[in-house]
Amino acid sequence: MENVPDFVRELDPIIYAIPIFVIAVFAEMIYARNTGAARFDARDTASSLLMGLGNTVSGLVFAGLLTAWFMFVYDHRFFTIGFAWWIWVLAFVLDDFVYYWSHRLAHTVRWFWADHVVHHSSQHYNLTTALRQPWLSPLTLKFLWIGSAMVLLGFHPLMVGFLGAINLIYQFWIHTEVIKRCPPWFEAVMNTPSHHRVHHATNPLYLDRNYAGVFIVWDKLFGTFQPELEAEPCRYGIVKNLGTNNPIKISMHEWFAIVADMRGAASLREAMMYLLAPPGWSPDGSRATSKQLLARWQARNGTPRSEADDDSSTRAAPSAAE
Amino acid sequence: MMLALLLLGSLAGVAAMVALNHWLGLSEPARLRDIDEAVERLDVDAVGFEAGESVLAEDGSAALVESADGATIGLLAARGDQFVIRFLTPGQVRAARIGEGGSLTIRLADFTFAPVSFPFGDSPHIRHWADKLNALQG
To answer: CA-based diameter of chain B, in Å?
Structure first.
């Protein structure tokens, strides 16, 4: 193996973060008990935590396959980039950029949503929600292309894996209602609890917004940013919420729904649309995509005005007078 | 061996967090105040819902609201401290059965929605709603 730093080979950041996750969840629960600033339901908590545990086990099951694939791609890389300190900084930013687009696809293509929906399937928003993760992500085959982009470019797979873990660890703390707003400079650049609450909300105004992992600037650059508005409190979950806490059903429900829809499709085109169109697409319009829900909501509430003139991508809730 | 220990330790951690959640009593079962609240929730969820005939469970744990045009029945059911909503159209109901003590058990053709027991109390309309729901069987 080339001169990969020892800590990259030997240290799994997630393993070290787990005790911090546990302590933080305990602290959030106790804080919630004393202040009412967060909501928990024991059955929801159990499923979120079991989904997290299952995700870790699944990671071990698929580790061999993924390692073999990424090393194969690395053997065919365009450049050899190395491990200089500034490469780490560059790679972290680039990894977050890739995360933004991968995450955006996870919301806008049903095939990928079938996997990612697991993370959004709780109607609660607390630190345990961060741990509610899918079990079968490699089956989306995203790792074959968007997940391989940096490795193909020449970043070592262990570096990409290490930075991906740091990215995920960062995202843990933003899954909370306890922290209302961070300092303005921080809100402007970084993903925060406020920005990510919007991402987990099902209010039509908030659907498919704020895909960022660490840096919210990607959403501002690519027109998907939406600030949290006091007039529009977040309602969490998915458009059609689940009436179960069974982790297996949570894990599989959208895959089954896709298969059922495709089996009932009237043509190959229709079947492919069920698979690849945005979630909520249907040939007869009997369901609604995020865009359709937003259009319906806007028609009901009046055309939204932009709160920030310099950011036309920002949607705003209509005022009471409207 | 190490892996098995890690898994057991993780399961113990999960159990401890769930136990703390339960012990702290951080949630109350969701309950509807009245039928207006049920209609409002359906309206927000569907981004537009014109309510017709409706009925509220005796304990506020569920509600059934038919749309004004009769095409859909909105079902709200408490799951823990939240409500889950389904807009029922033909083919989505597996069965609605009247049980002892004036309750209506509704099973949907939807494996993500566990059967809901709807306490009607002494309401005389239980048969009427059971028939409406059973008319939506696939």
So the answer is: 63
d(C-alpha B74, C-alpha B32), whole Å: 14
| Residue A314 vs residues A107, A187, A223, A258, B128: alpha-carbon distances, Å | 18, 15, 8, 32, 48
Least CB-CB distance to B114: which of A128, A244, A296? A244
| A295 vs B: CB within 8 A | no
Question: What is the value of ipTM here, to two decimals?
Answer: 0.92
Is the CB of residue B107 less than 8 Å from the CB of residue B95?
Answer: yes
Residue A13 parent element (H or E):
helix A13-35
Q: Where are the domains of chain A?
A: 6-177, 179-239+280-322
Structure tokens at A191: 């993903």
> What CATH number should be reported for the domain whose range is B35-134?
2.30.29
| Angle between helix A13-35 and A157-172 (nearest 10) | 10
Task: Find out whether A127 and A171 touch, Cβ atoms under 8 Å.
Answer: no
CB contact under 8 Å between B26 and A39, yes or no, is yes
CB B7 within 8 A of CB A57: yes
Q: What is the mean pLDDT of each run of 10 residues along chain A (322 residues)?
A: 80 87 95 94 96 93 94 96 95 98 98 98 98 95 94 96 96 97 98 98 97 98 97 96 96 97 97 98 94 94 55 56 35
DSSP-assigned letter for residue A179: -
- From CA B103, how far away is CA B116, in angstroms rounded? 10
> Is the Cβ pair B79, A25 closer than 8 Å?
no
How far apart are the C-alpha atoms of B23 and B39, rounded to whole Å? 34
Locate the domains of chain B by residue range: 35-134
Nearest to B110 by CA among B94, B126, B122: B94
Contact by Cβ (8 Å): B73, B65:
yes
Block residue for tokens 């895909």: A211
The reply to whether A204 touches chain B by the CB within 8 Å rule is yes
Give pairs for A229-233: CB < 8 Å, separation 24+: A229/A205, A229/A307, A229/A316, A229/A317, A231/A317, A231/A319, A231/A320, A232/A203, A232/A205, A232/A206, A232/A317
pTM flag (> 0.90): yes
